[in-house]
Structure formats: structure tokens, C-alpha cells
Amino acid sequence: MEGFKRIFSLFVLFFLTSPALSHRRTPRQSGVFCTSHDGTKYLPGQTWSLEAGSKIFNCECKPPGRTHCEWTPNKSKNQRCYDRRTRRFWNLGESFTKVSRGRTLDCSCKKQTPTSSQLVIECTTSNRCHHDGKSYVQGFRWYHTDEEGVKFRCLCLALTVVSCKATVRTEVTEVEVSAPVYNNEIVRSGIAGFQACDIGHRVVSAGFAWNETKHISDDVVTIKSCVCNNALITCKDVLKSRSREPHCLTDDGEIHAVGSTWVENHKYTKSLKWRCHCDGNSRAQCRDEGTCPDLLPPANGAMICVSAADRASTKRTKYCKPVCEEGYDFQSRERRYRAYEVCGVFNRHRWASSYVENPLLIAKCIPTVRRHSYYSHYIASDCETLTEDQKSETKDNFMRLLTRRRLCRFGCRFESFTCG
Questions:
Q1: How much helix, strand and coil, in percent to the nearest 5, is found in the chain?
Q2: How far are the Cα atoms of 24, 100, 295, 349 from residue 359, in angstroms, in the given order?
Q3: How many beta carbons lie within 10 A of that of residue 366, not counting itself?
Q4: What is the DSSP letter of 85?
Q5: Contact in structure between 45 and 61 (CB atoms under 8 Å)
Q6: Does the pTM of the predicted model rise above 0.70?
Q7: CA-derived radius of gyration, the chain
């Protein structure tokens, strides 16, 4: 009996391991198999591949019937860039143009780094010029006619620079000398000879620029920089320092050593001034230290002024409101709709509106028998006879107006109440 069992076991083992009979076994017959995404069954040890998007999954069926997969980048499908604005795919190395915020951009699909597998879209305008709402490629030539009818020949240079030159006729008859000539046509007769400029030793066309040495001192060289524009010569002085030490040069020709501090005042407006410091790179850094001039109160009225603090700044913005006495109203219709005037750093310490005879007079009060409904803030009697309580009420009304408009978020301070 034992011999019979041994012979039967050897026969079964031979049947299962025989190569000729192994193809007859199926996953269902073995009892252990793995199922792929498409329903295909694989025996332990068998492998298959699955492509999904930009990845390739290499899977293997393990003996317990468990599927183990590892993925690698799909290089054949990862060579494209996606532009969200145009919703299009672009292949690696492909170039295209697109318009963004009114400007034409030259874009290309490229690798983020030479060794990186990540692709990016890089756009630039360095090879383009923008002129009169149009975009031109570097090296492109075109003609442009200005408002005066002058025809210019333009060229797009590198770094978005446009070079335009006027096409001016150089040979004219004696009859045409007194009139501007362009493209063999006389335009705007009586202005100047063919829109050219006579600079003494030669006649130059419109757009020609030149420099002349005006004055030389021990420290500064003054150069007169001129340009011919529509037969008119416009010049401005340019200062060049002769000092070899690191310094800063002001517009007035003053030389300041590095590290020094000075105050610059406006040429015409005394309330405008700047405190400047010469840095190590020989460039002056200037900080605004100007003040707002005091306004004049209108006759038969008063002027109320309040200052408000600015965020992260020691400067304050000044708000002034003119008011009229009872029986008077503003002469200007626009003044009736303007609640106050503003002066601060943002407008270079200047009041927006004023009269020609005096820039510090922004309102005039004239007699009237009608009180306008939209002008509710006025003083009820003669300004000189107002009590402190009446003045405080007028000031509080103005302060509440600024608070409602969120102008006192960092603090407001009463400045003055002046009678006219």
C-alpha cells in the first residue's frame, strides 16, 4: 500500500512540472492570480505595463496574488507645455506669440533647467518694439506720420528701442526756402525752411541732437544739450563733475562728498524742500521734508484745518475747509460741491485749487439771500463774535466728516480756525 501511494505522488508531481503540460494550466486552475485594470489575469511572476497620462506603470504579480507596480515618467508624453491663458499645448522647443495686457510677447516651451524634466513657458519682449499700439519684431522697418504730417522712417532696435528719423528733402529751390518741405510737398508755409534747424555751421534735419561745451570750471563742466524739433532748437544744461573723489552732483552744480547730508529747496516754491544724503554709490537719496503753506481765510468767512497722520510715515496730510458767514455763500459753483481741500506728500504739498491773484486763496464769500440746501456747514454769525462752543461745534462737524470718510484711521489733529 505504501509503495502504491509513493508511485501515485511521483506521477502527480511529474504531471504538474512537465513542460509539455504546463501550457494547459490556467490562472483559474492554479487558484492564485492577479487581475489587471482591463480584467486580464496574470500568474505570479508575470509582468505587464500600464500607460496613464505622463506615467508608465510596470506591474508584477507576486506569489500571494498581490499586484506590485512601479512608475516611470512617460517621456513621449511629457514633452509639452500647457498655456492656461490660451488653453493650448505646445511641444518642447516650439515658439509662439501671444498678447497679454495689450503687449505682444514672444514665448517658447523649454526645460526649466538643462537637466530638469519639468517644462515651462518663457515669454519676453526684449526682441520687440511697441509703437502707437502696434508691435514690431527686432529689425523691422516701418514709416510713421506724426500729427504735423511729418513722415518718419522707424527701425526696431534691440531692447525695445525704436529709432525714428525724419525724411527731409535736402535740396530746395529759392522759392521753397521759406516753407517747410517734406516728400517734395510744401506744408505749413511760413514756419521755417523745411522744418530744419540752422545751428551756425550747418543745417540739420528735425530730430538731430548735438552737445556744446558751455562753461568749464575747476569742479564742473556745463554742457548744452540741444535737439532740433520742428524747426525749433531746444537746449538744456547738463552738468558733469570733474572731481575724482566719490561724490554726488546736484542740479545746481554743487558737489557733496559721500556720506554728507544737505537740504535742497524748490526753485520757486519755498514750502518744497528735500533732505538728501550722498550714498556710497555716488547717488543722492532724498527724502521729502516739504510743508503745506497756510491758506488764507475768505473774507466774511473762516478757514478750518485738520491734519491726519499717514501710515508708516512721520508726515501728515492737511485737510482745510472754508466756510462762509450767514448771509454769504461761495462765489464759485464748484466750491459749493467741494467739502474740503487736501495737501500732502502725494500732491507735492500743493493745494489743488486757488485764485489767480493769490495761490493761497481757495474761496470767496459773496452776499446772497438764498441758502443752498447742499451747503449745510456754515457759521451762523460774524466769525469774530463766535464763542468757543460755536467754534468747537463747527470743528467737530468737520472732524466727523473726515472720520466718516475713513481719513482719520491713524489719528487726526485740529490745526487752526482762522477768521477772514
A1: 15, 40, 45
A2: 108, 45, 9, 13
A3: 13
A4: T
A5: yes
A6: no
A7: 42
Rounded Cα–Cα distance for residues 80 and 57 (Å): 20
211: left (phi over 0), alpha (psi -120 to 50) or beta: beta
What are the contacts of 63-67 at 24+ separation with CB within 8 A?
63/32, 64/32, 65/32, 65/33, 65/34, 66/34, 67/34, 67/35, 67/36
| Residues 6+ positions from 368 with CB-CB distance below 8 Å | 327, 328, 329
Listed residue (325, 316, 402) closest to 363, CA to CA: 325
283 contacts 385 by C-beta, under 8 angstroms: no
What are the pLDDT tens digits along the chain (420 aa)? 555 545 545 444 444 444 444 333 444 445 788 888 788 888 888 998 887 766 788 899 988 788 889 888 776 666 788 888 778 888 888 888 888 776 778 899 988 888 887 888 888 877 788 777 788 888 888 888 877 677 888 888 766 677 777 765 544 444 444 444 444 454 444 444 446 787 777 777 777 888 888 877 777 778 888 888 877 888 888 777 777 677 787 777 777 777 788 888 777 677 777 788 887 666 778 877 778 888 889 888 889 999 988 876 777 888 999 888 888 888 887 887 787 888 888 777 888 777 878 888 888 888 887 665 555 567 777 888 888 888 888 888 888 888 888 888 888 888 888 888
Place of cell 461745534: 393
Amino acid sitting at position 25: R
Let me know: does 170 contact 196? Beta carbons within 8 Å.
Answer: no
